[in-house]
Amino acid sequence: MCVILSYNKGNREERSPDMTNPSATQRSTLEYVVDSLRHAILSGRLVPGQRLVEADLTRELGVSRGPVRESFRRLSAEGLVESIPNQTTMVRRYSQLEMKELFEVRAELEALAARRTASRMNEACVRERFLQATQPIWEDHHGMSPAAYFEENRRFHQAIADECGNAKLTDFIGRLQLPMIMFQLGNAIHGEAQQESVVEHRLIAQAIVSGDADKSAQLIREHLRRASEFVDRMPADTFRP
Fold it and tell me: Rounded to two decimals, what is the model's pTM?
């Protein structure tokens, strides 16, 4: 059974839409299901290769099968899920080439985001939000579990995208599915490699907070390039054929 949990937007918990409004019911129900599944995938609660079972989803989300099936089509178009005709639908698993291409594009977009975020550090509210969001990278990481690293990594990169001041850029970065990629690489990034990643996060954060746009862009580009090198070290069965 796949676990979606409730989709939280801000501080308000999203639940099934109001079925007393017939004119809005069909669309609002579909959007609710699509948003819930998308959020679960991009946050890592649903992982690459995990089957999506209609019966489980209808029960957990409190909707009929129609919106669930249509959400599969929507998310397939976004590249988040894949369906095998007459068999099953699952969270998408990337091929080795796809992962390397995604890292390359993501590195350039995040470099732009880091540059823009660094240039906004003179805005007190932006600076405060960024410092608060990235505070966990300064804590003791001795014995950090892979799951904890995965979540911290996701939040760190999201903080940079969130404060860049360009909604389209933030959206594009979010759609490149870094959480899915990192989960697929999870077995390769541990121990010393994990600690090196934490150090790199701290250097990037320092450059951003100091307002050094050029250095911020350079460091995050190098950081993601090094992360992409793990793709070549993974066994073939890690990837989609």
Answer: 0.72
